[in-house]
Amino acid sequence: MKTWKANWEESKRRYIDWWNHKGVLLTMWEHFQDPAMAPHGERLAPAPAIDHRQRCLDPQWRAAHLDWYMAHSSFLADIPPVANTELGPGSLAAILGCPLEGGADTIWIHQPDDFDPSAPIKFDRGSAGWQLHKRLLTECKLRSNGNYYVGMPDLMEGLDVLASLEGTDNALMNTMMDPEGTLQRLQEINDVYFQVFDELYEIIKEDDGMAFCYFSLWGPGKVSKLQSDISTMISEDDFRMFVQPFIREQARRLDLTLYHLDGVGAMRHLPALLEIEELDAIQWTPGVGEPQGGNPKWYDLYKQIIAGGKSIEANWVELDEIALLLDAVGTEGIQINCDFHTEEEVRRAEDIIDRFIH
Questions:
Q1: Cα-based distances in Å from 95 to 33, 221, 268
Q2: CB neighbours of residue 228 within 10 Å
Q3: What is the pLDDT of residues 181-190, one digit of tens each?
């Protein structure tokens, strides 16, 4: 696959090293457009979306916009050339019947009115959510023409999806009042997850692997970000009962996986995550009101993750934090994710890293 990223073969080698807990990756969340750079291809932007629904949920408009956006994006360092096709955080719930609503800066996933907690959770290929996922990814793949990857949407899994279906209060109450039923529903969700993932993978895969929409992920084979945001509301014992087994099954059945550890309230579950031998990497998001990923406050956390045999991803690292972070944590199995605005900033970050690895 010959993408618009000039150094992609070199970056792929660094990605493979990173998954194997070696070396340094330099990436960012999605992409940036530098006015000084020439576009990779001549692409016209589509007419402005008429409303939030078209901007978020119209496959043809989104595919045309993403094609233009990718043509005008920078892919320096290890920034992967991947189009973001997410349909809201946890869009597996939409495939299972949750209504979607386009918003100004996100896609909202609403609890369905007709969810029956006594009925088995099954994959309905006729659902509006499933048809939307397929149309969006198929349209984007046609537009991409091998110039960039079409990312796997942020399906999410497990207790987060169950909370979207049942409502958060009901899902949490049922872990106490109906633990066996909750485990059954979680297994049904995991079973649907693999069916959905495998079918979407067949649409987006390339000859060298696939990319995921979030957290700058690429790898050979099937790659995914895993998470459980609702875990901030449950105990360590409940995490091991209602979350860990299903994350372990995903990490075992997929080729490469990264867990999105979100917020200081979730830090207590790190030991349970490190018990999952098949899990390859952990990403840390400090949360609102906390210093971001390059702050010294998190050095010990990163060291614990590395000592546990996982690669790490530190997000929203500032340029003046890179050297201190590498000096404290080392240069083996760390992804540094920055918020770049110009290609000059990327080159400055590369120079800093080069001083540590050469």
A1: 33, 23, 31
A2: 28
A3: 999 999 999 9
